[in-house]
Amino acid sequence: MSITREFLRNPGCTGAIAASSRRLAAAMVAGVGADRAARVVELGPGTGVFTEALLARLRPGARLTAIEVNPRLAGDLARSHPDIEVITGSAERLAEYVPAADVVVSGLPWALFPRERQERILDQIGEVLAPGGRFATFAYLHAAWLPAARRFEAALARRFGFVGRSRVVWGNLPPAFVHRAAVTS
């Protein structure tokens, strides 16, 4: 399934015109603690680039649950990765699908979401993350100045004890960076 085709079908739901690069995937999973996690959740896995990077780091016995709102992409991901749990649904209902997680990784297009949707999804992430849990998501460099992107960064800072940002991943189209956050006790 082409991410470009899905973007053209519904640009408000699929925020990327091209699949994320392996370099961005490596930056997303670096330092997020997937290698120590018992339960990892991926929001908006799309074509599975981050899924592959997570699977390469998961310890034996760890569970990966992917939540994808697009039924075509969810079906493709489930067929290509029968060893993970793929849920066709909205990240706004995360706590209904997964009671607890050590790590949440997100490929969601935060800068496209209105404030209320950003808040609902962040509330769900906060509800399921265990103490010491970690969250990673990315943003495109060219969109970092948009009001929705700045609002999202402020929301992260209000909710998490630690918030950081990676260096720019120039080997992605378009260039992007990773937001990292952690629940502190």
Write a structural description.
The chain has 185 residues and is α/β, with parallel strands linked by helices. It has one domain: Rossmann fold (3-Layer(aba) Sandwich). Helices cover 35% and strands 24% of the residues. Helix 3 links the parallel strand 1 and strand 2.
Overall mean confidence score, pLDDT: 91
3D shape: globular
Low-confidence stretches: 3-9
Number of helices: 7
Describe the main β-sheet briefly: 7 strands, mixed
Q: Look at the structure and give the CATH class.
A: Alpha Beta
Q: What series of H and E elements makes up the topology?
A: HHEHEHEHEHEHEE
> How far is it from the N-terminal to the C-terminal residue, by CA?
41 Å
Query: How many structurally independent domains?
Result: 1
What is the strand tally?
A: 7
Task: Name the helicity range.
Answer: 25-40%
Q: Name the structural class.
A: alpha/beta
Protein name: Phospholipid N-methyltransferase
Pfam families: Methyltransf_25
InterPro entries: Methyltransf_25, SAM-dependent_MTases_sf
Domain Methyltransferase: 40-133
Write the layout of secondary structure elements.
Elements: H1 3-9, H2 22-29, E1 39-43, H3 49-57, E2 63-68, H4 71-80, E3 85-88, H5 94-97, E4 101-106, H6 115-128, E5 129-140, H7 147-159, E6 162-165, E7 176-182
Parallel strand pairs: 1-2, 1-4, 2-3, 4-5
Antiparallel strand pairs: 5-7, 6-7
Summarize the structure.
Residues 40-133 form the Methyltransferase domain. This protein has 185 residues and is an alpha/beta fold. It is built from 7 helices and 7 strands.
